[in-house]
Amino acid sequence: MAEWFDLLQKSIWCGVAAVGFGILFNVPRRTLWAIALLGLAGGVTKFTVLLYGNGIIIASLLASIIVGFLSIPAAHRKHSPPMIFAIPSVIPMVPGAFAYRTMLGLINLTGNVTSETYSTLMQETVNNGLKTLFVLMSLAVGVFFPMLISRRETFKQIRTKGDEPKQKQE
Amino acid sequence: MEKEKVKISALGKVLLETGALLMSSGANTNRIRLTVNRIASAFHYDAELLVTHRALMLSLADERKDKFYSSLKRTSPHGVNFRLVSGISHMSWKIVEEGWTIDQIQTELDRLKELPHYPRLVILTFVSLAGASFCHLFGGAYVDMAITFVATFAGLFVRQQATKMRFNPYLCIFFASLVSTMLSGLAVKYGFGENPEAAFSTSVLYLVPGVPLINSFTDLLDGNIMNGMVRGANGLIITLSIALGLLVSLFIYQI
Q1: Contact pairs from chain A to chain B, CB under 8 Å
Q2: Which of A22, A106, A125, A161 can bridge A88 by disulfide, Cβ–Cβ 3.0-4.6 Å?
Q3: Nearest residue on chain A to B128, alpha-carbon basis
């Protein structure tokens, strides 16, 4: 129970961070609540997937896919493009800690390294760097995912034709 | 005949301005192309557009292909502004549905450009709060969150000030990163707080180039490889500027 409470608490902070970035990117005021909820939903998904022992990359991918899909109804309701909701909401998932450790590792690698410390240092740096890269890629792909599978260029078309956002051509 | 000529050039100018505004406020390439084409087709013109990071090229033709207009426009310096993106998207649909005139579009563009940003204190407070949330997510306690809050607040203030003084944008980010890490580095140096490393590493996260990097990947996936690479390179230079600020702080404090 305690871990679920912790998860919820972390997700709420994700929502707060999403609103902060929304304000930095100057989103319309009417969209701020939706961005907070989307950030929260992304956080809940990410930490739940992590709780079941999965890696950070798959957790970020699933969370950003959820955010991507939720941004479509939000866009219809608040009359703004989906990216305005999706981008601030996934930014709390940017792997800052891994990026920092990669940077620190690179700096240490430029210093005096002996052959004993080199392999551990190199291993950690490459590991952190690859995690950073793949998490960033999965965030971008996740946000873009609804566009990719619906094969539509704009989500406004969906409403004018009056069918469901997730409907695929099959 | 003369009237037609005036109309096509007026439309061309409006379209280029729309595209340039979208580019500098952080829309991806596909959105720019779609918006411009949508407005052009509402006036029964064919628009072909070349989108690059720093300039747009438009070629406009009427349906019988006997009138052409072609022009270039530089985009203004980039600064993410989603209020403008949202407003232009909204406008483009109204143009189609309500049959706006070119003058109406120009008036609306002028209005959208003048839309206010959030008050400076609100921006500073909420972005600092976002920094504090990051600190919590990376395992910081309340003391560490307070340190990140202060470091982010000061760093963002410096960045805004440097941008106002028209420094090179990457240099602005370097200054901000330096100020933030100098402040949070104090906590690491003197062992203040429960997890000062968390405060130190999260105090620069508000500078992370999220929009350029995400737009870079969406452009690449759309097949706009050139623009995707340009945006990616831009994001990379921003990241390097952040790292440089961090490095200088690490060097000064000898952590």
Answers
A1: 139
A2: A22
A3: A20
Choosing from B113, B134, B154, the residue where a domain stops is B113
d(CA B31, CA A144): 13
Tell me the pLDDT tens digit for each residue of B22-79.
999 989 898 899 999 999 988 888 899 999 999 999 999 888 777 888 999 998 887 8
Residue B77 sits in the same domain as residue B26: yes
A69, two tokens: 């899909």
Q: Hey, which residues 8-37 in chain A have their CB within 8 Å of chain B? A: 10, 13-14, 16-28, 31
Q: Do residue B137 and residue A14 have CB atoms under 8 angstroms apart?
A: yes
What pLDDT, in 10s, does the model give residues B92-130? 888 888 888 888 899 999 999 888 889 999 999 999 999
Q: What is the ipTM of this complex?
A: 0.89
Residue B33 token pair: 């192309």
CA dihedral B183, B189, B194, B197 (to 10 degrees): 70
Domain boundary among B113, B136, B158: B113
Domain that holds residue B37: 2-113
